[in-house]
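Because showing beats explaining, we let one protein speak, sequence and backbone structure tokens together, and leave readers to judge.
___
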Amino acid sequence: MKRNTKISAAVAAILGAPATTIVIAAPAETSTTAGTGIELQEVVVTATRREENLQNVPIAIQALTGDTLSKLNATTFDDYVKYLPNVTAQGLGPGQNNIYMRGLATGVTGIQGSGVVGSFPNVAIYLDEQSAQVPGRNLDIFAADLERIEVLEGPQGTLFGAGAEAGVFRYITNKPKLNVTEAHVNAAYETTAHGADSTNVDATINLPLIADKMAFRAVIYNENRGGYINNVPATFARADTDLGIHYAYAGGKVPANSVVINNSSVVANAINSVTYQGIRAGLLYQFNDDWNALLTQMYQQINADGVFAEMAANSLGQPQPDLTAQLYNPSFDKDHFENTALTVNGRVGALRLVYAGAYLDRNVTQIQDYTNYARAKYVDYYQCANPGKTPATAVCFTPSSTWHDIERNTHLSQELRLSTPDDWRLRGVGGLFYENYQIQEQVDWLYGSATPYFNPIGPPTGYYTVNGSVFLPNGYPVKHSTPGAVFVPGQVDSNNPNIRPPGDSFFDDIKRGYKQKAAYLSLDLDLIPKRLTITAGTRYSKTESTEVGSAIGSFGCKIFTGSPPPPNPCINHNNGANLSSLGLDTTVSGWHSRANLSLKITDDALVYYTWSQGFRVGGFNRPNSVEGGSPLAPGPDPYQAQARAHGGWVPPVDYGDDTLTNNEVGWKTMWLDKSLQWNGAVYQEDWKNVQIAIFDPGVTGNLTFSTNGSRSTRVPPGITLSWSRRHPSCGPMAHPSTSPLSPTRKATRSATPAAPSGLRSQRPRRSWAMRGRATTGRSIVTTRSCRWASFIRGTRLRPPTSSRSICRATPSPTSCRRSPPTTPQSASPRTHGW
């Protein structure tokens, strides 16, 4: 998303500021220090748990400073991810993304229930000193008063632990400043191409409370982004081609008196507006020259309406206009979190000590339209009935459906770290780490519109066994209908112990736990002082994962004429699972290490080699079985011969860790009196036991599950290049690019992947000849003008190539638009898994 200011205060923007700014007193020093003349700015990062110039850190790292974010008018994840090469995201809206680095991505579950049924991300998200990732939902921090964003590419398992398998995404906030009084106010009004207007205001204040001792800093923000997707008029009528229409028992045809609905009550333009609101406050106390403590409190809420994916086609496969959807029910996502953090810095002799403790409490409430699911394989069982024996007596009720997701995530983390002085020839960083992660999630799928023919469902009060086991010898779970099944009373741990309302056909009510204890050490030795350095580090971790609760469906709770009725309420008599009876508790431990050799050829040229490891913990699946007609079932049909020979197959109840090993050669250089920067890295990664998600109803069962794929997957070689230069009158311009090694060289101008029509960008493709398999990829080039982004009428222009074009005059405000961000196009019809 390219954002452009358009208010009378845009005079300030024309002069180079991103918005109206009020400054009281002179700002104190920040994490960047300007060079002299036309030198590029020095960016200080803490990727190695020490403060270092980015150009001296032998890691593939990117950084967007607060000043850069302001000049780019980038305030949310969807904004700044566009300026981070090798970082991509897949998701369904604000705070609903999976983040990937270096293309290390596999299939994932749907957003609904992802917190308890999805695998953990392989990119760790850090807010200052604490980790904060959760499956399927990235922590989308509004970029007000941020010091910088750091992106560490490749495995970072030694210093950042589990989840930092493919890399780390870090938000670094500004801290209170002693003896400094300052305040900033930013305000903006924007228009959106093909959408509604937007507004933004944020204010920051820093106040000294006690001279040389105490300071307070706070930021408050409110941004309302206009939508750009229209919910267009539509009618939903069942079709004979619906995959589950045979459940109407009308000879494979749609019953004559089936309900047809329209969406007239929810038709609207620009339905996907989103509001970011929050406040962050910090109190710093300086005990003496060596010791200080920082207490930070943060609150943020995101309220997103509608959907953030256009529908390329409706549920029948008919093409739809750009930037449109067909929803039949109101949809929204409310995501808010509170975070309390305490950081203590001090010294023990010559060693620096850091204690960082934090508690994050995040709550999500989401409702989404699910009506198109009525075309799927099983849904007509829950929406149609035939009390008689002829097609004339068959009836299908309304296809209108929704799903409701309530998720709470609490995250307690504590770390104690010691480090030696930076000027020692042998330097070290080591520490102890503990985190306790709890996810409580309840998801209800309300698509059971044939309510007169179903009894309501609820959490189980026990479980079934055969010969004392909850599983049969073939791996299938024991159900109430299993011959010889014995009911065993047992308590289930539920978030909601109540009977569900009519129409609730399936629910997950699950609690997921994750505890990690770790110790780590990293040592640097200067073989040649300030020139040649060798680094070695390792981390030992022990992680416990647990899961309890239930996953309950209403299959078996339907009332059929002439058959014994199911119990009312329908408990312990359906196709559900009591997860609390399965003993889902596992502990894994191991070592993950790194080694690095770096050479400072000159003060402006660094080359390095890195070998590093990262890992991601496994998890659990809901018990599932396959249909008798599946090719994986040991049935009598010819296509089931292999399944018969091997006794059939069922989805696993658990899946294990996956690991990543990285070999990387990189360089960091400065040229032309530090006015030109050129960095790069070439890497080869080996991904083992890759976690993948699968949903294939009729073949693997009707539940999404995760499993481990190839025992060893050699990722094609990759390369990251970035260069920046500073024009005397403009300032720094970044040109990052990244690509898997590609066999072709050509420039293409094509629509941004998965983007609305009209949003286009120039993406040169480059090639490098190397051994092994070559895959084609894109290298993204981004640029900005001195005063105004090159963005008119929703079309990205070719990046300028001359200093004159880069320093061109500001376009008139009437030509400025904010284009819709890149959004995934939803295929039709999609049947997301339970």
